[in-house]
Design a protein that fits this description.
Number of domains: 2
CATH superfamily of the largest domain: Glycogen Phosphorylase B
Number of strands: 16
Order of helices and strands: EHHEEEHEHEHEHEEHEHEHEHEHEHHHEE
CATH class of the largest domain: Alpha Beta
Distance between the termini: 36 Å
Number of helices: 14
CATH architecture of the largest domain: 3-Layer(aba) Sandwich
Shape: globular
Radius of gyration: 21 Å
CATH topology of the largest domain: Rossmann fold
């Protein structure tokens, strides 16, 4: 299927926390899986000839600086402003000013929070389009939103109901969006970064790796309990504090420090995390709710099986990409088995590499994004994966922003 527009639309990503993944020199500030997806897609679209920009926080970089074909427009510093007032100034005002300087046809974001409503209001005011990519299953249920303030929740819900296109990761998310928000969505696969050499089992010196923002819904203390039950295995825990979860971070750090078989890394740059995936025999995930965790993809790219409670679309169980479990006891047994059996581990590792190579090649993953964005810009119907779709409002000729 060819794209419906000869000239691709310009795209601006709203990724206030994404600069550390776009520009390695700022990697010390850290970022999460949804930010990585933004950075990967932005660079992929730039390689395909799109004019790509990104609104990012001010980390001291010059406004207009570019990395890998992505031109950045900076908003305010993450800590700027006076509490209560900073919601409007400088956060809202600086973000809108950066969006105006970007002067894009389509604004694309995937952050659960007020920015969704903010972007939709901007797009409607300036006769542009806005796209929202669902980062987590919790985005699809008003009762599960991880948004601190009532004001921000309402802005998120306002934006999600009115954004021009919603992109989901799974059929489950698609159904939940329809059920809770009355929204149709388009299913898209996540992007992955190519890896070099994948280490054999004998060269991996980490038995169990855990990666994620340290917040309650990720349930990192279950990993610590697993480490207590398997004292002969080497556990490595990677993650910084999520917004509003500093107490969880400090508590986990203290508990990890008391266990001889746990190495607590804290926040690490993405390049360092990639090395840890390559050194690990297993990735363990203790989350109860997410989308398709980026950590799974990173692990599978490195030939590292995953043991987890969460198994989106049952790919772990059906493809043999590790073990999907239902309790801590099952997790302990699965980890012990995979770490002690070379044959079992090699079979799972091989399955991971084969699955990621077939399912997540850049061309096959990026092309549907390109088609959807071009069709949205042209005012054409954007179908879902099953072939049905909904009509988008026609797009007028795009004026320059004042």
């Amino acid at each position: 299927m060819s794209t419906p527009a000869a000239t691709p639309p310009s795209i601006c990503f709203i990724g206030l926390s994404t600069l550390p993944l776009l520009a390695p020199e700022y990697g010390r500030y850290g970022a999460g899986g949804s930010e990585l997806q933004q950075a990967l897609l932005a660079k992929a679209l730039a390689r395909r000839g799109f004019r790509v920009s990104m609104v990012v926080s001010d980390y001291g970089q010059p406004d207009g600086a570019s990395w890998d074909g992505v031109r950045t427009r900076k908003a305010c510093r993450p800590s700027a402003g006076i509490p209560l007032i900073r919601f409007a100034y400088p956060r809202w005002t600086s973000t809108w000013a950066a969006m105006r300087r970007a002067d894009a046809d389509i604004y694309y974001l995937n952050c659960q929070g007020m920015q969704v409503g903010q972007a939709v209001l901007f797009a409607r005011r300036h006769r542009r389009k806005a796209v929202y990519w669902v980062a987590s299953d919790s985005d699809c249920d008003p009762g599960a939103l991880v948004i601190r303030y009532w004001r921000d929740r309402k802005l998120f819900e306002y934006g999600l109901r009115r954004v021009d296109l919603v992109l989901a990761q799974s059929a489950e998310q698609q159904a939940a969006l329809r059920r809770h928000f009355g929204r149709e969505s388009l299913i898209m696969d996540s992007l992955v970064e190519p890896r070099g050499r994948r280490r054999p089992r004998r060269e991996r010196d980490i038995d169990v790796l855990w990666v994620g923002n340290l917040r309650a819904l990720k349930r990192p203390r279950l990993l610590l309990e697993l480490a207590r039950q398997l004292p002969r295995l080497r556990f490595h825990l990677v993650g910084g504090p999520a917004q509003g979860s500093l107490e969880v971070f400090e508590s986990v750090r203290r508990e990890a420090g008391a266990l001889a078989n746990v190495h607590f890394h804290g926040l690490v740059p993405h390049e360092r995390a990639v090395e840890l995936y390559e050194r690990a025999c297993l990735l363990v995930s203790t989350s109860a709710i997410e989308g398709l965790p980026n950590a799974y993809l990173e692990a599978w790219m490195s030939g590292t099986p995953v043991v987890a409670f969460l198994d989106p679309e049952r790919v772990i169980a059906t493809r043999g990409l590790g073990r999907a479990v239902g309790s801590l006891e099952e997790m302990r047994a699965a980890v012990a088995s995979l770490c002690s059996s070379d044959a079992e581990w090699v079979a799972a590792s091989t399955a991971c590499v084969e699955y990621i190579s077939v399912r997540y090649g850049e061309s096959s993953v990026v092309t549907p994004y390109v088609e959807a964005l071009c069709r949205l810009h042209a005012g054409a119907t954007v179908p879902d994966r099953a072939g049905s779709g909904r009509a988008s409002r026609p797009t007028p000729v795009t004026p320059s922003l004042p």
